[in-house]
Amino acid sequence: MFFFSWKTNAKVKFTMTGHSPHSSISVAISVVLLLFVLFYVLSVCKCVLQHCHQVTTQLQLTNISYKERNNRRNEKAVEETNSKEKVREENKKLRDSELQYKA
């Protein structure tokens, strides 16, 4: 008799809490759907991060190439300045030698 009354109380308690035998299936389905959504969100985040990394790397390479190009321009400008100074010095020497020759 105690067993039956316990079962009856359990059923009453079971129905009083609002749980049904199908609630565990719906919870499992909800968990599976939540996992799929989380997987999708993480996949999208991963793709976005990879794209950002790729763009950043490309920008860094572009920046490096601009720096190298500017360095080359600066080196050429320095070489041109040095060559102009050499030409000026040579011209000055020639003028000095002509003045000495005339004198």
Provide a brief overview of the structure:
The protein has helices at 2-16, 23-102. The protein has 103 residues and is mainly alpha-helical.
Describe the structure.
The chain has 103 residues and is mainly α. It has one domain. It has helices spanning 2-16, 23-102.
Oligomer: single chain
User: Helix content range of the residues, please?
Assistant: over 70%
Please tally the β strands and state the result: 0
Tell me the series of helices and strands, N- to C-terminal: HH
Proportion in β-strands? under 5%
Poorly predicted segments: 12-16
Form type: rod-shaped
What does the radius of gyration come to?
43 Å
Quick check: average pLDDT? 77
Major sheet:
none
Going by helix content, strand content and strand pairing, the class is mainly alpha
Tally of contiguous helical segments: 2
Number of domains: 1
User: Termini separation (Å)?
Assistant: 144 Å
List keywords for this structure.
2 helices, 103 residues, rod-shaped
